[in-house]
Design goal:
- The chain is an alpha+beta fold and 144 residues long.
- It contains two helices and four strands.
- It has helices at 6-30, 108-142, and strands at residues 46-58, 65-79, 85-88, 100-103.
- A two-stranded antiparallel sheet has the order 1-2. Strands 3-4 form a two-stranded antiparallel sheet.
- A hairpin with a 6-residue loop joins strand 1 and strand 2 (65-79).
- The longest helix has 35 residues, at 108-142.
- The protein is elongated and about 75 Å long.
Length: 144
């Protein structure tokens, strides 16, 4: 691939990653009060896990292994391992014999902060793509 487009590819991978992150956060927020899911248990908060996406190749002139950044990739979406909240509500249909209900381990304030961070990261990647497009357009104008 043309090296000039690697910045676009990296920013595009950031857009995809942040979109997945916002989808996971939205799911967490939608299930903040879900005490019984398909498995019969309270909803557990989900977290998107990312890692750097590198292309590894051997430099033919030096024989060394080189890594070229390709952006970020989603590795998995896993459940948060923190404890579920116990809330005393004996009138709740999912309450145990002592009147406690297991509630999801979702903190709406943390989710909102994560959503703002993801949205800002998404916007930064959009700005980077627009800047690169502008630079390409200016470069093409030079050739006229």
């Amino acid at each position: 691939m043309i090296k000039a487009f690697s910045g676009l590819r990296i920013s595009a991978s950031g857009l995809s990653a942040e979109r997945l992150r916002m989808d996971v956060i939205s799911s967490n927020m939608a299930n903040v009060n879900t005490t019984r899911g398909e498995d019969g248990k309270a909803y557990k908060r989900k977290v998107a896990i990312f890692q750097e996406n590198l292309e590894r190749e051997i430099n033919k002139s030096t024989g060394t292994l080189e890594e070229k950044p390709l952006g970020v990739k989603a590795v998995k979406v896993e459940e948060d391992k923190s404890e579920l909240r116990r809330v005393y509500d004996p009138s709740h249909p999912d309450a145990d014999e002592s009147g406690y209900v297991l509630m999801p381990n979702v903190n709406i304030l943390n989710e909102m902060a994560d959503m703002i961070t993801a949205a800002r990261s998404y916007e930064a990647n959009v700005d980077a793509i627009n800047s690169q497009k502008s630079m390409f357009a200016k470069a093409l104008e030079i050739g006229r």
